[in-house]
Structure formats: structure tokens, C-alpha cells
Write a structure and sequence with these properties.
single chain; about 250 residues; alpha+beta; Alpha-Beta Plaits; 2 domains; 10-stranded mixed sheet; 5 helices; globular
Amino acid sequence: MQRRKIRLTVQYDGYDYHGWQIQPGKRTIQGELSEAISNLVGHKITVRAASRTDASVSALGQVAVFEVNSPIPIENFAGAINDRLPPEIVVTFAEPADKEFNVMGGVTSKLYRYTICTAPDRPVLNIRHCWHIPKKLDVPAMDKAAKLLIGTHDFKSFAAAKDKRESSVRTIFSCGVTAESQSVYIDVEGDGFLYNMVRNIVGTLVEVGIGRMAPERITDILDAKDRTAAGPIAPPQGLCLMWVKY
């Protein structure tokens, strides 16, 4: 039987997981998916994804891929995998992928959304998926600062110290801050992201929102190429991978 490459679109609530990537003795999204598919097809499968999301980070549009020798029709894969997954993970779509499809290297852009709740009381039904900041934020100032991040820059100031990648230059296609009732959304689309880059951007924009930092400081932070120049890291649970494009 000819080996097939299958592409999946996956959603998950990552709050109780140690991120995407398999780690010994820890519950991960990759681990659950790989185990579910292995049980389905009867041999060991390892699923690879477009983005290795961190612990407690969720996704609505993660893209994953695996190769398999199985006669299961493509239209039956999603349902059969879901029958073997915990309720906080779901495959929404399965389709054949070309042999040349590179799930990580072929990405042209990704969109992450970060959600902040500014209600005075804890939003108990949504607390797993937001950062609760019970105060008014200056959203126009945050959006002004966010726009200064658009373009190709060295984002070393927004990368975690343990990010050892050769280049810290990335391109941000769009970055904006919007408000709806008591929710503030920070959307960042780019060709790729450094370790903790989006959460460090969010933490810095919040510093602008509460008046501790002027929007124009973003330019100085980029120029500094020093993590200590930027604001604190935002907690992980407010972050969600919305989609991936190829």
C-alpha cells in the first residue's frame, strides 16, 4: 500500500497541557494526537505541526501532518481520530497533502491573537483563555505602539533569552489592538516568531496601555536588541494560534 501524507487542521484548549511538543512524562498536544492516530491505524505515528505552541497556549487553526500506510478513506480520518481524542482537542479537517508539503518550513504567515479581559471581576467562564487586568487600558496608545512593530526588524528585544536561533530578524505583516466591551484583542501576523516573542510584545503593549511607557518607546526597544529593554512577558493562557497560511 502506498504511503500517504495527511494534513490536519486542529483546534485545542491548551490550558492543561505542556505545549505542543512531546515531553517525557508530560501531557502534550502532539503526544495525544500521535497516540490517537497510532491507535487508529495500528502502528506508531508521530504528528508534526506548523507551530510548537507553548504550555497553556491554545489554537483554533493549528496545521499538522503525518504519514501513514492505511486504507482508511480520507473523509473518515477526522471523525475516527476525534473518537480517540480527549474533549479539549478536535480535528476539524483532514485532507491529502503533497509529498513535498513542509508543515513548518512552508509557512508564509501565522496569526496569533492575545485576549485581555478588563472587567472588574474575574471572568470565571473565560479565565483559562485570557489575561485578567481589571483596569481600563489605553487601547489607541497600544495600537499606535503595535503599528511600530510592523515590518522587517530584529526582534531580539522580544525574544526569550534561551532562544538560540541564528537570526532574530522576522517580518510582522500586521499588528493591531482592538477593544470590544470588556475585552481587548492583540492580533499579530508574521512570517515566523521567536520563542515567547508574541507574549513579550503583549507585555510591552500592556505597559503602554497602563501609561508606564510611551508608544514611541517601541522604536528604542527594537534598536536596543536587548530583552531587558522590553516589558514583562504576558501569561500564556491568553494566547491563541488563529490560523496558518502556506
